[in-house]
Amino acid sequence: MKTVLIVDDSSYYRSRGAEVVSRAGYEYYFAENGEQAVRMYRRIKPDFVTMDICMPIMDGLEATKEICTKFPGAKVLICSSVGHVPVYKRQAFANGACGVLPKEYDLDDLEFAISEIEIMNEEGVTQKS
């Protein structure tokens, strides 16, 4: 079964993400901050990650950079209320993210992003910094 790591300090958004990915047939795991996300990624090696930016302990941009540096094939999708801000969006891609959605995404948007990541995986495409 394919796996996803849902990283968000909000239990509401973790649950919302879980609803979508479970409908798409994914097994999911949660992390509440970037530091926990890096540890969890190392342990479970998920097929992709949804990552909030603004979190305690380690933010999502730093966690994305650490994950994508240590695991070059990692697929990280930024899902954040500030992800659309140009400076954050540029930094997300520079740190290795393969997509950015606003935190207020609808379920269809997230499912589309997941399918795009799956296509990238099938075609062996990686995000260029």
UniProtKB/TrEMBL annotation:
Name by which UniProt lists this protein: Response regulatory domain-containing protein
Superkingdom per UniProt: Bacteria
Residues found modified as 4-aspartylphosphate: 52
Alphabetical GO biological process terms: phosphorelay signal transduction system
Annotated ranges, domain Response regulatory: 3-118
SMART domains for the chain: REC
Entry keyword annotation includes Phosphoprotein: yes
SUPFAM superfamilies per UniProt: CheY-like
InterPro entries (UniProt xref): Bact_response_regulator, CheY-like_superfamily, Sig_transdc_resp-reg_receiver
Native organism: Gemella haemolysans M341
Keyword annotations of the record: Phosphoprotein
Pfam families listed in its UniProt record: Response_reg
